[in-house]
Amino acid sequence: MASETTLTAIPTGVVGKQAPGIWGFNGSQLIALLVLVAALALAPFFLYPVFVMKLLCFALFACAFNLLIGYVGLMSFGHAAYFGMGGYIAGHAAKVMGLTPEISIIAGGLVGAGLGVIGGWLAIRRQGIYFAMITMALAQMVYFFCVQAPFTGGEDGIQAIPRGKLFGVISLESDMAMYWVVAVVFLFGFMAIHRIIHSPFGQVMKAIRENEPRATSLGYRTDDYKLVAFILSCGLAGVAGATKTLVFGIATLTDVHFSMSGEVVLMTLVGGLGTIFGPVVGAAVVVGMQNYLAELGAWVTVIQGGIFVACVLAFRRGIIGELGNWFKVKL
Amino acid sequence: MLDLIEAYLGVPAPLLFGQLLLGLINGAFYAMLSLGLAVIFGLLNIINFTHGAQFMMGAFAAWMLLAMGTNNDAGLGIGYLLMFPLFWLVDAMTLKYQVSRQMRALAFGVVLLLFLPGLMVSLPGIGPLASVIATTLDLPTRIAAVLAWVFPNGLGYWAALPLCALLVGVNGVVLERVFISRLYKLDHLYGLLLTLGLGLIIEGIYRNKFGSSGLPYRIPAELQGAWDLGFMFMPIYRGWVVVAALIFCLATWLIIEKTRLGAYLRAATERAELVQAFGINVPRMITLTYGAGVALAAVAGVLAAPIYSVNPQMGSNLIIVVFAVVVIGGMGSILGSIVTGFGLGIVEGLTKVYYPEASATVIFVIMAIVLLARPAGLFGRA
After folding, report:
1. Which pLDDT band, with edges at 50, 70 and 90, does A17 fall under?
2. Which residue of A has its CA nearest to B46?
């Protein structure tokens, strides 16, 4: 049965009209980018830096996830596997192998991408909800692997991971030093995703999202494009997980668990699927909610479920999508 | 004879048969749950992520029916579950007599008023007097009191089987009417996200009310004890679970393949518009199909209650494996999902005997292999 509305329908009339901007950003996006950078620069002076770092790690994770769902139309329900595995690898590299933080983060990203090669290769054989179920099952397999494998420390996880010295020189033990590293990693990931979306490769991705048979008929090997997009997304998710591990000095099963996969879907949905800034805002909302509503305990699950239901029934464009629609700009 | 088998298999026979039985029981739950998912997917085109929560609700409903004479929370739970038939009644009646939107909203508001006071009691900062008034006015509290008075010993296992299917099934019907039916014209993935959210809500509520430690449910007196089969002792209840699951699965298959109702169902799965044009109420059929799939999950939950401890996570742990089972079997065939469910349960049991480290992952590995060899699934159509 053909679906009448695609998952990431961009409202007609929103696209176009704007003057071509710089680096593929249009006018409104440039303003939003400036606001984002300013917020990044000022946030640690007003908010608890560790909280902002956590937020940025999840924002990068959500952006990586959005690269798949928002621009290729692939709903991965197992992104926690790549996020969590990136974290474990970075923790192992920093603690056991004594590598510097930048190498640990790169290692986390590479392993995330490597897992993505296998997961993507299997999952792109099916589409739609089957894709979602396959990614979810594969992630559950990674979870059970992490429960049993010796290097992950099972239920205890890897604890007391040192932040180390950046390039072997600058100590990151102070929160502010670590903050600037996280901010740079986040901005790098954010700009990389923006660059991917606006490359010719990104145009093909969007073509697949809109109409895959047509992209095939134009001569594109859509499976190859989907696989590369999946690997890129997983690699960036791995980078996000690795960074989070270094910030908190701990890698645990929570980060590979299915509920984390659900959370990143929630962040992206709340912010706006297929918008560049949406996942960042969504991550801020969800992480902030968990932080400030922590005393509610198990009710947080109920609230999260309620947000899912509300978003799907009434609020499908997400916060940024609705804002963009309201001001007739593309964010 | 047994020695020969043991020499041939390389493991003690009781261990092998014990794990085979455990595998069969797991397989029974895989089969019942994936069957429900397949029936729902066939007609509604959504993957019901709430299925695990509904399985859990079935087990909890059985526990609540048994404990409602002594445990106030249990009676209250039944009271709240009984609110859903009211909603359905109001929905059906207002649709049948075509009342105006305002009257419909008013009727729903009245039903809400019946159990809102009880919810307000749990709000922080409510005074003692207001609390007493609210408890007095609350319908579920009244129902719980009446139930405790009529059934001081609660309702046992045999009553629970049909009652839980009914209670949870009607709950599913209301979910379909209120939420899911709004999504049929959208991308299927929205249905997945919505049911995921509903599952989170249900699980969170149960965890808040009953904790996550798990509640015991005793095996009914008729099914206690074990049979000596010569090569192993088989607990009667475990044998019953396998047989009962087979009966439920085959009954579902018979209904779908051999009855007129099943013929309508299969026709609507193929071409819903055409079936509607012949004068069959397809929207109502969709609603009832969802309810039936949910009821099947609830029955599986009741069967599971004496085996696993009744806890809010029991469904979400199972459902991801069931998704893998569904991918392996493909959702095209009813009989296929039954066979795949039982088969994978047995494979899992055998893995526990020969290579225990892989027992948690073996189904996912099989899924990967099947995806490579037959992407549409063993019984699926491309």
Report:
1. very low
2. A129
CA distances from B251 to B124, B177, B284, B338, B363 (A): 49, 26, 22, 12, 26
* Ranges in chain B, pLDDT < 70: 1-2, 122-126, 381-382
The count of other CB atoms within 10 Å of the CB of residue B93 is 12
In a domain, A16, yes or no: no
User: Does residue A185 lie within any of the structural domains?
Assistant: yes
DSSP label at B156? Answer: -
Residue of B182, B183, B187, B202 to mutate when probing chain A, most A C-beta within 10 A: B187
pLDDT digits (tens, 9 = 90+) for A242-290: 999 999 988 889 899 988 999 999 999 999 888 889 999 999 999 988 8
Q: Return the pLDDT at A282.
A: 93
User: Mutate which of B364, B367, B374 to test chain A, going by most A C-beta atoms within 10 A?
Assistant: B364
User: CA of B84, closest CA in chain A: separation in Å?
Assistant: 19
What is the reported pLDDT for B305?
92
Count how many pairs of residues, chain A against chain B, have C-beta atoms within 8 Å: 133
**Domain membership flag for residue A136:** yes
CB atoms within 10 A of CB B134: 19
Is A308 in Cβ contact with B197 (below 8 Å)? yes
Provide the shortest C-alpha distance from residue B1 to chain A (in Å).
38
If you average pLDDT over residues A61-65, what whole number do you get? 95
CA A141 – CA A251 distance, rounded (Å):
18
* Contact assignment for A301 to B207 by CB distance below 8 Å: yes
Which among B155, B128, B127 is positioned nearest to B61, based on CA atoms?
B155
Residue in chain A closest to B371 (alpha carbons) equals: A122
Whether residue A3 and residue B199 make contact (CB cut-off 8 A), yes or no, is: no
Q: Does domain B2-68+155-373 have CATH number 1.25.40?
A: no
Residues 157-196 of B with CB under 8 A from A: 179, 182-183, 185-190, 192-194, 196
List Cα–Cα distances, A117 to A82, A122, A232, A257, in angstroms: 11, 9, 9, 20
Residue A309 · residue B194 · CB < 8 Å: yes
Question: Hey, of B371, B372, B378, B381, which one would you mutate to test binding to chain A, going by the most A CBs within 10 A of its CB?
Answer: B371
pLDDT band at A15 (very low <50, low <70, confident <90, very high): very low
Domain segments of chain B: what residues? 2-68+155-373, 69-152
Q: Which residue type sits at B168? A: V
When pLDDT is averaged across residues A164-176 and rounded to a whole number, the result is 80
Question: Given an 8 Å threshold on Cβ–Cβ distance, is A144 in contact with B361?
Answer: yes
**Phi then psi dihedrals of residue B227, to 5 deg:** -100, 140
DSSP state of A276: S
Considering only CB atoms, A129 lies closest to which of B189, B199, B368, namely B189
How many residues are recorded in chain B?
382
Instruction: Give dist(CA B105, CA B270) in Å, integer.
Output: 35
DSSP assignment, residue B182?
A: G
DSSP annotation of A18 reads: S
Domain of residue A72, residue span: 27-327
CA distance A202 to A206: 6
In a domain, A9, yes or no: no
Cα distances from A271 to residues A31, A59, A266, in angstroms, run: 18, 10, 8
Report chain B residues whose CB lies below 8 A from the CB of A309.
Answer: 179, 194, 197-198, 201
Judge whether residue A14 has pLDDT over 50.
no
Of the pLDDT bands very low, low, confident and very high (cuts 50, 70, 90), residue A11 is very low
Q: With H, G, I as helix, E, B as strand and everything else as coil, classify residue B116.
A: helix
Q: Is A237 on the interface with B (CB under 8 A)?
A: no
Closest-CA residue of chain B to A76: B189
What's the domain count of chain A? 1
Q: Of B244 and A3, which is predicted with more confidence?
A: B244
